[in-house]
Amino acid sequence: MKPPPSARDLAALAALLRDRTRAEIRADHPLAPHTSYGIGGSTALWVAPTREEDLPAILRAVRQAGLPLFILGRGSNVLVSDRGWPGVTLHVGEALGGMRFADPEVEVQAGCALHRLVVAAVERGLAGLEPLAGIPGAVGGALQMNAGAFGREIADFVVAVRGFTFEGHPFEAERDRLSFGYRESPDLHGVLITAARLRLERGSCAVLRRRVTEILEMRSRRQPLDLPSCGSVFKRPAGYYAGALIEEAGLKGERVGNAQVSPKHAGFIVNRGGATAADVYRLIRRIEERVFERFGVRLEREVRLVGEFEDRS
Ligand SMILES: Cc1cc2nc3c(=O)[nH]c(=O)nc-3n(C[C@H](O)[C@H](O)[C@H](O)COP(=O)(O)OP(=O)(O)OC[C@H]3O[C@@H](n4cnc5c(N)ncnc54)[C@H](O)[C@@H]3O)c2cc1C
Questions:
Q1: Is the CB of 75 inside a 6 Å radius of any atom of ligand 1?
Q2: Domain boundaries in the chain?
Q3: What's the fold here for domain 7-91?
Q4: CATH 1.10.357.10 is the classification of domain 95-221
Q5: pLDDT band at residue 98, thresholds of 50, 70 and 90?
């Protein structure tokens, strides 16, 4: 295991970034408030850029300092270790969240909340994104995860994606050069996504608004939205539903500390208040073991683990 960066390296990097960029920089910054779980320790260095032009310099400086880099969007698909993240967390937030419509296309920055984009498109009478309403991520996280719901995924709309490699070089790829899988975008690994061009279709505002309302109602009927979570913890295994397997394995309502398999939707692990990352992780491992013992199915995690976990596998 690599030793954690020294306080001196971190201070030098923070000073350099303060000097050369307009990013917000904080040392030892808590990550829990930036995640939908509300769980996790601090990041050694928090860097929240306020303008895209600073990104190459930030990425190059982090690389030169040899610090581990984690990109954070709205934190709705991550479980951050109780020990936090020993390197730099680069937050792509609403400061990098503009959008520009050239109907029927939209150029949207990665920090824009996905739901805000859906609503803006609907209000212009642009159709397609309504099934993604209510997904609590940002556009960058949605592209990295190929987020989807109700039979549609963001990849369906992508014309091109822009960003930077972790070395700070510009990255741009048209749709035909990008492969997207189920909840994964292999060609975007190692890319800091800054923007995407999406193509939508013309539709009727009133119809689209109704569809969004229906989608949001379905979500709140099926999902435990009253408690913090990361959405579905596991991907859907071929031929099954993860939630159904977990329920049939007798794990609905199962608890480790204050982490619980949601009694409403067994695919979700909720934080009942004060759960630790270790609680959630132990519950994840228990589910994986029991489902495998019972059905011979190896569940694949959708949630991204950030930092160190005991006996991580
Ligand atoms: C209540 C609830 C319901 C949900 N429902 C759904 C659903 O229906 N469908 C679905 O697909 N997901 C769902 N999710 C999961 C989550 O909202 C999506 O995966 C979302 O796309 C994650 O976006 P984010 O900005 O929160 O990413 P984060 O959680 O911040 O990050 C997720 C991953 O993307 C990477 N990443 C983030 N931003 C960037 C960027 N700009 N460039 C490069 N990499 C980046 C991170 O490094 C990390 O690996 C749900 C979550 C919750 C809490």
A1: yes
A2: 7-91, 95-221, 223-306
A3: 3.30.43
A4: no
A5: very high
Does any ligand 1 atom lie closer than 6 A to the CB of residue 55?
A: no
For the domain made up of 223-306, give the CATH fold. 3.90.78
Beta-bridged to residue 47, according to DSSP, are: 25, 90
**Do 105 and 159 form a contact (C-beta atoms < 8 A)?**
yes
How many A from CA of 144 to the centre of ligand 1?
Answer: 8
- Please report which confidence band the pLDDT of residue 2 belongs to, taking 50, 70 and 90 as the band edges: low
- Shortest-distance Cα residue to atom 36 of ligand 1: 141
Q: In terms of C-beta distances under 8 Å and separation of at least 24 residues, what long-range contacts does 52-56 make, across chains too?
A: 52/96, 52/109, 52/194, 54/20, 54/21, 54/22, 54/23, 55/164, 55/168, 55/192, 55/194, 56/164, 56/168, 56/169, 56/170
H or E element at residue 80 = strand 78-80
- Give residue 239 CA to ligand 1 midpoint distance, Å: 24
Question: Are the beta carbons of 114 and 212 closer than 8 angstroms?
Answer: no
pLDDT per position as a tens digit, 126-146: 999 999 999 999 999 999 999
